[in-house]
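To whoever picks this up:

The nightly regression suite flagged SDR family oxidoreductase as changed. Nothing in the input moved, so I suspect the structure step. Input below, exactly as stored in the fixture:
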Amino acid sequence: MTIYPPVSNSPASNSPASNSPASNSPASNSPASNSAASRPDKHSTSSISPNALHGRTAIVTGAGQGIGRGISLALSSAGARVAVVGRTSATINAVADEINSRGGDSVAFVCDVTDGGAVDALVSATLDEFGSIDVLVNNAQTPAPGTLLEIDESTYRDALESGPTATWRLMRACHPHLKNGGTIVNLGSAAGIRWNPSGTGAYAAAKEAVRVLTRTAACEWAADGIRVNAILPLAMSQTMEQWAQFDPAAAAEYLQTVPLGRLGDPEADIGPAAVFLCSDAARYITGHTLAVDGGQALVR
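Regenerated output under the current build:
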């Protein structure tokens, strides 16, 4: 379903699965990440209860690939109905079709989250389709590679618009429907707490602003019965694979910063963390940032 005209260029809603710029991330084809001893079953979601989110509706932005796709599949495995949101119809339709082929209930919505009118239309369309909104996952983010002197004002503005501003806009639009038990999970990045010399300043600023919004909303909306948390993920993606093929030595060196010695899987590693934060098992957790990154955030 189209809420806003799709675009043909690289979509803001489909941020790299690591939630960090491509130049800073290794690929899943690095030796350590592909070893049988270190890599889990990529489709294993055995840790997810099929009833953890039964009867609830989730909106997931940036859901056409990577972490957004993985979280969408995991939420569905937990029993949620899923609105798969992105700017590229082919990718989000593929994710929705995959969910439905597994016995889930999903609809794809093409939406530019930087457009306020499109966001309002998305909320209305989700309510029309499913009748409620119980979970919001904000994953959309446009990359902004380059040092502070290399990027221009347009790139910096796009990073803020697609990240924290879109996150704020979606949280506000969904707020009335999340009261009395709803949950929000915002995707941050370790780039906000770990400096990288290759140039991630604008991206890091945008992602750290998302965490500030998370903590603020958690406090302001606690009285409304809404929990708000953040995840700092590290997972495999096509972008990472391409980077490792281009510079395998740098990819292998990067992997050494991950204590567990491998990259996460979007569905099997990041997805269950999102399910947990959205479920009643986390009912006393709000304003928290959960690093799901193999321990990398601890290595400063």
